[in-house]
Structures are given as C-alpha cells and as structure tokens.
Amino acid sequence: MATIKDVAKLAGVGLGTASRVVSGKGSVSPATLAKVRKAIDELGFRPSHAARALLSGSSRMIGVYIPVLSGTFYTPILQIIDTELRAAGLHMVLAFGVGLGDERRQAIEGIEFLVERGCDGLIVMTSALLEEDIAALGLKAGQLVALNHCFDSIAEQCFTVDHTLGGRLAARALLDHKHRRIALVEGPRRLADSVARTQGFDSELREHGIDPNKIWRIESDFSPAGGWAAAKALLESGYECSALFCANDEMAVGALSYFQEAGVRVPHDLSVIGYDDTPSAAFSAPRLSSVHMPWREMTQNGINALLNLCYDMKRPVHREFPVSVTLRASLAKATSGRRKAA
C-alpha cells in the first residue's frame, strides 16, 4: 500500500509539500499540485484515517458513552448518531459501562477511554456523573454534549426531554380511559429522569382526586425481567386494579409477557401503558400504548450542537421537543368487570 512518502518521492517533492496537497491546507503552485495529484492517481494512494488525523489535526471521530450496551432504548439512539456522523464524514467510537466500579466510576473510565483515543467531541448519556467530573475534563468539557441529563456548568450543551410532562401524560391517558384503580412500576429511584416521570404521574393523579400514596407501586430496574417480576408481584399482592403504568417500555413488555402466561387478558382484564415508545412497543402482543418521548429530535439537536462546537458547522439547534402519547391495543376503557389480581 502506497504511503505519503511514496507520493512525495514519485512527484519529486518534499514530504511537507505532498502533505499540504493531501490535506488541502497551505499554498502549493499549480504545477506542483498537478505533479502530486498525478502521483496520487498512479499509486492509488488513499490516506489512512490516522494519516488524515495527523495532517488535519482532527481525528474526525466522536466518542459516545452509554451505561449499557443492551435493550431497545439505546440502540435506536446509537443508530441516529452513527447515521448523522457518517453523513458528515465523521466516525462514532462507542464506550459503555464495564468493570468492577460503580456506575459513576464506569462512566468516568469510559469517557477517559474515548478521550485517550483522540475523539474530537463527546456525546454522553448517563446520570451517574457529577459536576466535578465534568470540571475534571478541563477544556474537553467544552466539546461535550449530554443527552437526557443536564449539568448546570454546561447547561447550553445539555439536551433532554420533559419527563415530568411525560409522567403526567401517562396518568392522563389512563384517567381519560376512566381508570381509577391504578398500579405503578417505577424505574430506579436513583435516576433523575425516572424520578421526574414518577413525580409527574403522581401529580396528575393527585390533581384528579387520587392519592398516589395509596396506589400499588414497586421499584424495578428498567429491564424486561424487572417488568416480569413486578407483574408477578402485582398479581400475588391481591391488589385490585384496572390499569398498570410501567415507567419504560422494556418493563411493560416484560409485564405483558407475564400477564399472558398468567392468563390475564390485556386490555380486557387489565390495561397497560409504557413509556419511551421504543420500536418494540409497536410489535409487542398486544401492541403497547406508550408515552412517546422525542428521542430522535433530542438526539439530532444534540449532535448539531456538538458539530458546531467541534467543527464550527453552524447547524440549527432547537431545544423544545414535543411529548405525546401513542395509543395502541394495550389500553382500553375501564369496565366494572375488571378482575382482581390474585
């Protein structure tokens, strides 16, 4: 494989001159330019990624950190990021939580991994980091965008959605379908976005005369297995309800699976609504009603902001993202004949 040195030798020019032609930076006479381009064509020279980085001072790589590489939530977001970066002539480098440390330590080490590999900018999706961790990044903090979380020190570089409103809309959808006896599967209470959606849900119930402290609820881990276990616990509790809100779609899909095995017909015996409106919601059995969070819009604008910071691309950036509810087969009107969990 030909190198930049081979190009310089064949063209009869210095290495620096050949490098300026390849990088497009610096002045070169028309005659010299023609000689170098002819040598490139004859040798079939294609600069490697590493060579382009050395010539341009930019790796053209964007690092992305997510806590886990599993499930249906992060995959669509990663697809959006990768597609947008490739269209801009950039590459995505992914890191996720591994190791024996806690979530914060894993996030710190994952981001360090991306910085060490020369990523021009960072996209971070984790609530485990503290403000001091952002400060520790020094100048690199100015080339970081946070998705689904906000840090006060870099507020203009943070893009999130209104989870409080999302929780309210979940409750409103159930109330609009005449449900008053409701159960709740919360997400992890250590996560700010999980807490926000639960608070919104509780507030909406309270405003409609339902004491949220008296409904059946359980904390789970955002996984299908967690939803399965929560649904099992609900039936075993004997709590009488007509509807269940699961604070993400993966738990809702797990709950649907358990109900099917237990002989609980959804939505005839029990309605179920999820949260996120991930692709899996449209293909569950029955198809899952879910709070539609505008992840695509949030991600797209976060990418635009980062490319503006790193490459001065001057892309448009918006910060208002619509939240709605997608109604599907898992949610129906409450009836007096709803069964008691047992």
Automatic annotation (TrEMBL):
Residues passing through the membrane, by range: none
Keywords on record: DNA-binding, Transcription, Transcription regulation
Matching Gene3D superfamilies: 3.40.50.2300, lambda repressor-like DNA-binding domains
Highest taxon in the source lineage: Bacteria
Domain HTH lacI-type intervals: 2-56
InterPro entries attached to this UniProt entry: HTH_LacI (IPR000843), LacI/GalR-like_sensor (IPR046335), Lambda_DNA-bd_dom_sf (IPR010982), Peripla_BP_I (IPR028082)
GO MF term list: DNA binding
Name this protein carries in UniProt: LacI family DNA-binding transcriptional regulator
Organism of this sequence: Massilia norwichensis
